[in-house]
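Data availability (excerpt). The following record was deposited with the supplementary files.
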Amino acid sequence: MPESNKPRRSTYERALDMLESRARAVDELRRLLVRKGEPADEVDAAIARLRAAGILDDANFARQLARSKALGAGLSRRRIQLELTRRGVARDISEQAIEDVFAEERVDEHEAIERVARKKLRTLAKLDAPSQRRRLYGYLARRGYDADDISRITRQLLADAPSADE
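Predicted structure:
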């Protein structure tokens, strides 16, 4: 069927398709639909319908993302907050979600940074000490950990680790 003869999919259906591929925040979904050329009034109506059905919920989305990023990717609170902000989740919602997840899962950031650093350090074993230090520092910084914590754990782990030339 030629493109012009195809029936137009509704904004609601398009939104459902986008949510099927990946969970999204309200603001993120709104931006994507508008960018795809959907009329703003239809986008608002579709989002209202999705929210009323419980399919689109920023608080639930924020908890899911915080849990995934804290436990799976080993990201810090600060980095998770940044990720949620980037996706359009309101600060109060994201802060509460992060707080809830870290409490529910008993995430200890000191243990988390050490676990993440040890895992990364294994991949850097063949490098000289200055390269290990530099790469480990950058890796942990990109995960949002505090500079003082990164310095502490880097000193601790590199003092314990055998160098590549031993």
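Summary of structural features: The two ends are 68 Å apart (CA to CA).
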